[in-house]
Amino acid sequence: MLEIHTLADAPADAPADTPAAWLELPYDLRHKSRLRTRLAGGEEVMLMLPRGRPLKDGDRLLATDGRVIGVVAAFEPIVQVDCASPRELARAAYHLGNRHVAVEVGDGYLRIAADHVIENLLVGLGARLQHLSAPFDPEGGAYGGRAGHGHDDARVHGGRIHVHASPA
Question: Parallel, antiparallel, or unpaired: how do β-strands 109-113 and 104-106 relate?
């Protein structure tokens, strides 16, 4: 099984050419530092990355065999939130933040993971919702981490390795 321990974020670590393979993951799995999954071509891979930095679309990983693996944000169900005015959009963002909802901030819109309870809250605030299938890349939070609580923290579950079966 291919192992990946290193984020190839320094030019010395990552050749400039096209990655040898691709790892496609949804938002929730790009935050796992320990994950057993498959590359787009079907090869089994074990991620054992340093904690604290979620993977982003376009990141490069360095496998133990020397190959560079590209990260792709998977398409997933999300909701785009639009409002009639910037004030109403700011109000919606406030209420989402107050509930620790992961939010992607765009030019005049917000995007969240599909969640009927939060969607009902937003409709009650007068927001317009559009259901999409797209990559989700929310803000990292005020201190650079993910919104919400650290479920990938070893203190919570002992550093368990998550298993994810990529779509074929």
Answer: antiparallel
- Could you tell me the CA-to-CA distances from 94 to 74, 101, 132, 148 in Å, in that order? 27, 10, 22, 15
* Residue labelled with tokens 């959009």: 89
Q: Which domains does the chain have, with CATH numbers?
A: 2-74 (2.60.260.20), 76-134 (3.30.70.790)
Q: What is the mean pLDDT of residues 108-114?
A: 97
> What phi and psi values does residue 89 have, to the nearest 5 degrees?
-65, -40
Sign of CA dihedral 98, 53, 167, 104: positive
Strands 68-73 and 21-25: parallel
Report the predicted TM-score, pTM, of the whole model to 2 decimal places.
Answer: 0.74
